[in-house]
């Protein structure tokens, strides 16, 4: 939820001034709650009552802005200006996250395609071909980790985003699932030499171990590979399916962006122009990607 600076001015004994200050505070709180509801992890629509209250609070005409972009008609124009600065920054952050989540959705689809090749392995597939397909999957999975691990880390662009963190966790659990091939006496992909490093989150393939299992229990190994392929692909596809984590987050972000864009003029007239956002690093790169998507 948007955090706003509290006014440091002393409440006036003048009833009109006190009322104006309470109204300004209400406008700030109402907008913060409304924007938070738009970007919630669940796909809930903002309460109509809150939207109506905010519209009513903003109905009073605001005076023209000063040269510094403040609304001098407000009891505390500086706090209102800071509020608009937060909104400007939040808009950029939402656009950057939208681009990053869109890239994650595309990567999940690539992972599903790559793991699907393991499901095509049959009795006639030679051992070198099996090794090659597993190497290709490991490379693609590690590409996923290299691309998004930093964004998911503390302070990253997707840190705290449930849709993104659940996606990473689900895929890792799919690899470490020990029930794949259980009916054939195997403990999942672990027995085939595919493991996840707990520190780097990267996958690795012990080909010596894989070759040994193929020699000792080939049918069990093939069964484990096919079951793993189906389960991993299902997890990746569900994450990007309609109504699930990633599409819901993208929808919430898109609605918040549209809301700010469509109300920008009235917000600036009410709160002031605010400082423009100055994105840098990963946020700037993702924002450029968002702008490219829109064009």
What do these coordinates show?
This protein has nine helices and two strands, in the order αααααββαααα. The protein has 295 residues and is mainly α. Strands 1-2 form a two-stranded antiparallel ribbon. Helix 5 runs antiparallel to helix 8 (245-271). It is elongated. The two termini are 30 Å apart. Mean pLDDT is 85; it is low at 1-19 and 41-62.
Radius of gyration: 26 Å
How are helices and strands ordered from N to C? HHHHHEEHHHH
The total count of strands amounts to 2
Task: Let me know the average pLDDT.
Answer: 85
**Overall 3D form:** elongated
User: Helix content range of the residues, please?
Assistant: 55-70%
Helix vs. strand class: mainly alpha
Distance linking N and C termini: 30 Å
Count of DSSP H/I helices: 9
Task: Give the strand line-up of the largest sheet.
Answer: 1-2
The fraction of residues assigned to DSSP E strands is: under 5%
List segments where confidence is low: pLDDT < 50 over at least 5 consecutive residues: 1-19, 41-62
How would you characterize the largest beta sheet? 2 strands, antiparallel
Brief summary:
The chain is mostly helical.
Notable traits:
single chain; 295 residues; mainly alpha; two-stranded antiparallel ribbon; 9 helices; disordered N terminus
Which helices and strands occur, and which strands form pairs?
Elements: H1 15-38, H2 48-57, H3 77-116, H4 127-152, H5 162-176, E1 194-196, E2 203-205, H6 207-216, H7 218-239, H8 245-271, H9 281-294
Helix pairs in contact: 1-2, 3-4, 3-7, 3-8, 3-9, 5-7, 5-8, 6-7
């Amino acid at each position: 939820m948007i955090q706003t600076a509290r006014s440091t001015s002393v409440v006036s004994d003048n009833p009109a001034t006190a009322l104006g200050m309470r109204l300004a505070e209400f406008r700030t709180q109402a907008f913060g709650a409304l924007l938070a509801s738009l970007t919630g992890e669940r796909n809930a629509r903002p309460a109509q009552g809150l939207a109506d209250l905010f519209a009513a609070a903003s109905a009073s005409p605001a005076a023209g802005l000063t040269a510094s972009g403040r609304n001098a008609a407000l009891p505390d124009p500086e706090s209102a200006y800071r509020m608009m600065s937060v909104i400007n920054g939040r808009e950029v952050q939402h656009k950057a996250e939208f681009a990053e989540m869109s890239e994650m959705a595309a990567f999940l689809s690539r992972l599903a395609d790559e793991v699907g090749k393991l499901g095509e392995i049959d009795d006639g597939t030679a051992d070198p071909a099996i090794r090659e397909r597993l190497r290709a999957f490991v490379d693609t999975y590690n590409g996923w980790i290299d691309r998004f691990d930093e964004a998911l880390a503390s302070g990253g662009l997707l840190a705290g985003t449930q849709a993104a963190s659940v996606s990473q966790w689900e895929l890792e659990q799919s690899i470490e699932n020990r029930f794949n091939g259980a009916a054939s006496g195997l403990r999942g992909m672990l027995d085939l030499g595919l493991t996840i490093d707990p520190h780097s989150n990267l996958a690795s393939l012990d080909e010596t171990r894989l070759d040994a299992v193929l020699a000792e229990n080939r049918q069990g190994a093939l069964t484990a590979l096919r079951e793993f392929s189906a389960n991993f692909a299902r997890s990746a596809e569900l994450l990007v399916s309609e109504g699930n984590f990633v599409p819901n987050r993208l929808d919430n972000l898109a609605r918040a962006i549209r809301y700010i864009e469509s109300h920008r003029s009235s917000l600036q007239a009410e709160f002031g122009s605010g400082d423009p956002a100055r994105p840098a690093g990963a946020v700037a790169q993702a924002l450029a990607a968002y702008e490219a998507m829109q064009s």
